[in-house]
């Protein structure tokens, strides 16, 4: 299983941007959950916690394509350094507002700034791989490796932020996330040798979202993001309802753990099926895997159920990014990949908001039905529009 990944790191400079990119992405699994844990501890309301976390995600989702376009036009380092510093300032402001009991609107205001200035580092890392391995069959393994790296983050991040917020201090998780963001992103920006070149002679007209296949993928990932956002919040409430709130991080780690295992397996295989067929099958398995969690009322049983539910996540995301890479012109690739982040961000915001409302109204176990419904919606959209996912080049 390790074989296909060995040759990825022989190119000079790859190890540097991979390590920096990994550190900089650790907060992506900690930020939303850390905000939920902090605000819920202060207000005793999952609805308020979900609303603030949703505000951060919506702001991020709105800004991500613009950030991607700026990166395509001016280069990665020139854009992400000032954005990272702004993000750190805004997140610090949010924590200070919470600490000193500032009005609720201040939490939303600083949340908007924190989300809008967040960097989609995963898109930038994948853009570097696309630049270095353009036209190579190793790009499948590279994207698979990055998906596995994402899942490693999502396995460890929720458990870490939950432990810090519940056992150390409600602010501790967000502080660690802030340090990782600044250190990792700035170190990534310093890796200039692998940065994709800027096509200054070309006009950057149009947007990748006007490509039918990209629009379809964005809709599918919007629905999947709603699953992620709702499962995150509902699982915290589920653990609390059963008197095991510190276990929430471990439950979410199980969800990501299933995706990690499947990502390693998926990237190690040479596939004969088309990307389109793989994508449709993956989202179908994703929906089927989510069915049990809406029927379980025991924390001990929920962990393996979430592991099984996560098995289809990595294959779906890996294939989605590969489809973007095939469908979008190279000069717009970062923006094209950012639309995945935008869609997931909007979905996570919707899921966190709806999950909080439904949890407060009907309880966590019943609220999982919303997550399952969103997965079914992803299948309907993906299957119904799959004809737009035929790629213009042969499969490797």
Q: What's a concise summary of this model?
A:
This protein is mostly helical and 396 residues long. Helices cover 76% and strands 0% of the residues. It has a single domain, classed as Up-down Bundle (Growth Hormone, Chain: A), CATH 1.20.1250.20.
The biggest sheet amounts to: none
Query: Helices and strands: which structural class?
Result: mainly alpha
- Assigned CATH architecture: Up-down Bundle
Estimate nothing, just give the exact number of structural domains. Answer: 1
The percent range for helix content is over 70%
Q: How big is the Rg?
A: 20 Å
Q: List unreliable stretches of 5+ residues.
A: none
Measured distance between first and last alpha carbons: 19 Å
Oligomer: single chain
Describe the protein's architecture and organization:
There is one protein chain. The chain has 396 residues and is mostly helical. The protein has one domain: Growth Hormone, Chain: A (Up-down Bundle). The chain is built from 16 helices and no strands. α4 runs parallel beside α6, α8 runs antiparallel to α11 and α12 packs antiparallel against α13. It is globular and about 50 Å long. The model has no long low-confidence stretch (mean pLDDT 85). InterPro entries: MFS, MFS_dom, MFS_trans_sf. Keywords: Membrane, Transmembrane, Transmembrane helix. Its main location: membrane. It is a multi-pass membrane protein.
């Amino acid at each position: 299983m390790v074989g296909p990944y060995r040759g990825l790191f022989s190119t000079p400079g790859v190890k540097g941007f991979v390590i920096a990119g990994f550190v900089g992405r650790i907060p992506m699994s900690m930020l939303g959950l850390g905000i939920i844990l902090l605000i819920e501890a202060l207000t005793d309301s999952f609805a308020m916690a979900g609303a603030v976390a949703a505000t951060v995600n919506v702001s991020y989702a709105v800004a991500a394509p613009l950030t991607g376009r700026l990166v395509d036009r001016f280069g990665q380092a020139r854009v992400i350094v000032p954005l990272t510093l702004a993000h750190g300032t805004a997140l610090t402001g949010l924590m200070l507002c919470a600490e000193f009991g500032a009005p609720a609107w201040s939490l939303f205001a600083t949340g908007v700034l924190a989300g809008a200035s967040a960097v989609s580092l995963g898109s930038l890392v994948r853009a570097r791989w696309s630049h270095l391995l353009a036209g190579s069959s190793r790009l499948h393994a590279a994207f698979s490796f990055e998906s596995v790296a994402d899942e490693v983050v999502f396995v460890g991040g929720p458990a870490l932020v939950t432990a810090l917020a519940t056992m150390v201090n409600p602010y501790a998780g967000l502080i660690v996330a802030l340090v990782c963001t600044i250190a990792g992103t700035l170190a990534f920006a310093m890796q200039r040798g692998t940065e994709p070149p800027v096509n200054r002679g070309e006009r950057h007209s149009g947007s990748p979202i006007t490509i039918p296949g990209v629009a379809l993928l964005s809709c599918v990932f919007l629905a999947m993001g709603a699953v992620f956002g709702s499962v995150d919040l509902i699982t915290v409430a589920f653990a609390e309802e059963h008197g095991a709130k510190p276990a929430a991080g471990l439950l979410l780690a199980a969800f990501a753990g299933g995706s990690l295992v499947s990502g390693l397996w998926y990237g190690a295989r040479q596939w004969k099926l088309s990307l389109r067929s793989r994508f449709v099958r993956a989202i179908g398995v994703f929906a089927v895997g989510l069915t049990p969690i809406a029927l379980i009322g025991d924390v001990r049983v929920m962990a393996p159920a979430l592991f099984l539910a996560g098995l289809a996540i990595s294959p779906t995301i890996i294939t989605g990014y590969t489809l973007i890479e095939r469908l979008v012109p190279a000069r717009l690739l970062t923006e094209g990949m950012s639309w995945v982040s935008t869609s997931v961000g909007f979905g996570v915001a919707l899921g966190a908001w709806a999950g909080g409302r439904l949890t407060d109204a009907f309880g966590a176990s019943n609220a999982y039905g919303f997550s399952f419904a969103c997965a079914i919606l992803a299948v309907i959209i993906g299957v119904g529009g799959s004809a737009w996912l035929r790629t213009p080049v042969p499969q490797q």
